[in-house]
Amino acid sequence: MHASEKMAEPRTLLSFNSNNPFVASSNDDTVMKNVQDTHKPDGRTFDVKPVIGVTTQLFTDVASRLQPSIPVIDEVDTMNLDALGGLSYITQKIGCEITYKCSGGADQHATTMALLGDILSCYPWEGKVVLVLAAYAIIYGEFWLTEMLYSSDRLAKSVARLKQLQHVDVVKPQFDKLNNLIKEMLELTWCITKFRDLPIDYIPRDSPAMATAQSHVIIAVYWVIMSVVTSVGQIIAMVGKSSKFSTTSGTWELPSLANKMNNIHNHLQKQFDKLFKFAEEKRLAESFGEIEQLFQTVHVDNMKVMRTFFPEELPFHHNESIPRYGNSRNVEMLRGKIVLLLFSDLEITDEDITCLTKAYKTEQPDQEKGKAARYEIVWVPIWDTTIKENKDLSSAKASKMPWLTVVRPPPPQSAFVKYVRKVWRFKKKAILVALDGQGEVINQNALYMMYIWGNAAYPFGRTREEELWREQKWTWDFLAGGLDLPLSPLEDEKHVCLFGGLDMGWIEEFTKKLEEVMRVAETNIQMLYLGVPQPSTPTGTQQIIDTLSKERIGESKVDIGLIGFFWTRLECMLHSLMQIRKKSAVQDKVTLLLTRGSSGRGWALLLKGNGKWFQGDGSALLSQLADFKSWKNEIPTKGFIDAIDASYERYFKQQCLNLLLPGSSPIRQVTCPCCTKNMETLLLFRCCNDRHF
């Protein structure tokens, strides 16, 4: 067209609802049917990602020069562009066609339909829109190269003169609107390219959901091409020196199209999000079913199970200070062994790690010298793998563990983690799932057995657990097993007093009275403070430990970690007994000790050697010690433990108690050790202090 001619006013045939651009009138349906009819694919395709990548880079480079606040993106890898064959010919042809039609004032809709029905008909929908946008990028890039080099390059100046280009400063507001439209077109085009990424294994191409998505893609493709045609027409009209360009059309149409691109993009993205979510749910359900089937099948060895969970060639790493592993990191090192899978989040406590380490470092049962261990522990941490800080925290935790750690933890939303949570009931507290040499689950949580018996619990199955409890007696060795308590009651049948509580006044009075009584009874006693189970904060407990150490009351070698382990191990005993549903005298003693400790008030347990035991409530014990004269004459015949026990039974009726367990405990029903009735279950919400009830 001549420079003096005014560009034809654009005709917009489709007027979609602004709230939902996919809701159209009957006339719109006709136009969309015509667009659909232009589609005659012949199998011709190409990789759209590198093309749209370079196109995006070109537009962004121009925008960043016009507006320095816009960040420059990294250079796109163009390696795949070399294999695109005759693509440059196609984009050149498209660009010439658009420029020619717009220069002659052709209707935008007619130009769009002509492109779709001729040059683009054989390409897939995402290919059509990427090719048109690439052609537009070439036109746009060539224009801006000339404009930017005009003042410094004679060749660029000559080209500008022949094209009769005027400086863009004259029409800068219109170019700002144009750049905004380009941004929206790029975002919508990137969204369209996701269409081929939809997993057809879970969303069949002929499904109604896929048909709906495709109709949305067709609409989006039409409007991007229409916007490109409109944009080229606007550029031609804006930059000609003698052009009598009317800003009315550009001022209205470019923002309107940008808004339309944005609306279409939002709705299309929502549709894709639904499809991807639906496909992911189906994939997870399928994978979950495969894992269920895996554990329902009898295997020759455990390799199929191990390789399913740890598919990498070298799936493990380990603390380099552990020499027995050498350089072995392959899943083969687990063949035929008992494998304990340790699942936890990144809040696994040093207490848990220390407890397992003590058991793991000891010689394993029936292990010949120099031979490989008969079981392995593998830590499988479950955490958000997208957070960089989590990786550092995971590495710090793994450095404290003398066993294997998976190199690549499973994503929290994977079917594996879903199975661990649903079937093996992992929530927050660490669990230790035991698999035998054939990969069969023999214990969904062997952590309790490890806490209680250490390596003696091998091979960690339920049968072994029941066997251990049948043989177990309530002895000092059992109570203090693996704790390294600074006491030795078995040497010369010494007396020992374990006591706890959070009332420092009671503690000072009790220990003073007990020492006085033992002096009169001419009996030595060792005393050890063991606090309370699950204090809401360790501050109060640590202050008591410090005070006792300063005043030289009892053994001062105890630390707060040992105290926590003592009570956790008792909770493990209770859970293990509840799990196998075997009532025993040990269970009553464990429950009674936990209930006294849960009260937060004073408590004490007196014992001699492996046979004499007595435990009582703090205030009642003080009364007994104050009334020592009434029962001291029984000591020569009964001994100190039996004498105080008999006096306690005469004067104090056993009161039912409360039991406080952590919220993560799986125990749901406990029998009262005093009246043998089932305890009532209540909820306790506790804030950050050391008070209990």
Strand order of the largest sheet: 1-4-3-2-5-6
Radius of gyration: 39 Å
Helix content: 40-55%
Give the percentage of residues in beta strands: 5-15%
Q: How is the biggest beta sheet arranged?
A: 6 strands, mixed
Number of distinct helices: 23
Overall 3D shape: elongated
Average residue-wise pLDDT: 81
CA(first)-CA(last) distance: 90 Å
Low-confidence stretches: 1-26, 242-248, 689-693
- Could you give the count of β-strands? 10
Structural class: alpha/beta
What number of domains?
3
Word description of this protein:
- Strand 5 (431-435) and strand 6 form a beta hairpin.
- The strands form two sheets. This protein has a six-stranded mixed β-sheet with strand order 1-4-3-2-5-6, with no helix packed on it. A four-stranded mixed β-sheet has the order 8-7-9-10, with helices on both faces.
- It is built from 23 helices and ten strands.
- It is of the alpha/beta class and 693 residues long.
- It has helices spanning 26-37, 48-66, 87-103, 108-117, 125-149, 154-163, 172-192, 208-239, 247-296, 303-309, 350-361, 388-398, 415-422, 447-453, 462-471, 476-479, 504-520, 539-550, 560-580, 585-598, 618-626, 635-638, 640-651, and strands at 316-318, 338-344, 375-381, 404-406, 431-435, 441-443, 495-500, 525-529, 603-608, 612-617.
- The protein has three domains: 26-281, no CATH class; 303-471, Glutaredoxin (3-Layer(aba) Sandwich), CATH 3.40.30.10; 487-651, no CATH class.
Features:
elongated, 23 helices, disordered N terminus, Glutaredoxin, six-stranded mixed β-sheet, 50% helix
